[in-house]
Amino acid sequence: MRELTYVARRTVEWREVPEPRLRSDGEAIVAPVAATPCDVDSAILAGHGFIDPPFALGHECVARVVETGDAVTSVAPGDLVVVPWSINCGGCDRCRAGLTAHCAAVPHMAMYGAPLGGDWGGLFSDLARVPHADAMLVPLPAGLDPVAMASASDNWPLAWRLVAPHLKARPGARVLVVARGSVGLYVCDIARALGASAVHYVDPDAEHRALANGFGATTAETLEPTPHGFDIAVEATGRVEQLALAVRSLTPEGICESAGNHFRPGELPLLDMYLTGVTLRVARDNVRAHLPHALDLAASGAVAPEKVVSHVLDWDDLPSALPENHLKPVFTRAVD
């Protein structure tokens, strides 16, 4: 089968690898039908990652189940499913506590699309093996478009987690979003749908700002610190100086969520944060734990994740089209 492999900056290629096989009766084999790059994939393709190539790329997709082991009961061949990016067993103490990105039953950082906790392959592949299938795979709710939800493996539920719990605790909060990619736009849509009194989106890209306007956000090209201006801030740029500006804009006891992958060091205004009482979380996301809630919101019709999809492209075009600078391209194919 073909496995899309990152080989150098702005360069990926198909490589032939053996087809995955079931290794236990609790596993499944799936075939991606709609896959998309995560915001961090875009950084890797631009040469900003910290792992040397080559390695299989891709960790966001909706897939069709091809084969299941005899012990799998939650999905069956033919089902459309979301494949979470991190490998997790669902039964260890950490998984039961919702810390599915830190599963104690698999190597640390086990995931698709990067060889950090073993080589699990990537989801820009013709087939993928899913261990612990009952724990990992989530059926796609009826009526949801696989193209619109291709990011449900990571960026969509991450965006939900960045604001939804905080807006539940702080109804009508003012939300600041400092971003460079799809996560920030999803956050704008979700925050508006869940009752934020104001959403302000900062991004140098004019097309991104236009999308945020469509989600009801005010926008700016650059961020000017607004002391005590926002109750919740989301930083998704991977730039520490932008994170510093975001935390300087929080109200007393404000909350900042950093979803950027910070490959380079930097400084934070720790004294300002101390005096304001800021809560800052920089976190690897436990997608599987809150994926059902994020899918429920998508199925409600109150949000429009499809508006963030910038291009719908053919699966065979992955090597040529993936390195291009698109916001959120989705690559599709038919799998019976």
Describe this structure in words.
With 336 residues, the protein is an alpha/beta fold. It has 2 domains: 199 residues, Alpha-Beta Complex (Quinone Oxidoreductase, Chain A, domain 1); 128 residues, NAD(P)-binding Rossmann-like Domain (Rossmann fold, 3-Layer(aba) Sandwich), CATH 3.40.50. Helix content is 25%, strand content 24%. It is built from 10 helices and 16 strands. α4 runs parallel beside α5. It is globular and about 55 Å long.
Task: Furnish the topology, listing elements before pairings.
Layout (H helix, E strand, L loop, with lengths): L1 E7 L2 E6 L11 E8 L3 H7 L9 E2 L4 E8 L11 E3 L10 H4 L31 E3 L2 H4 L1 E2 L15 H15 L4 E6 L2 H12 L4 E5 L3 H9 L3 E3 L9 E7 L3 H9 L1 E9 L11 H7 L2 E4 L4 H14 L10 E4 L3 H4 L7 E4 L4
Parallel strand pairs: 9-10, 9-12, 10-11, 12-13, 13-14, 15-16
Antiparallel strand pairs: 1-2, 1-4, 3-5, 3-7, 3-16, 5-6, 6-8
Helix pairs in contact: 4-5, 4-9
Keywords: Metal-binding, Zinc
Pfam family, one: ADH_N
InterPro entries: ADH-like_C, ADH-like_N, GroES-like_sf, NAD(P)-bd_dom_sf
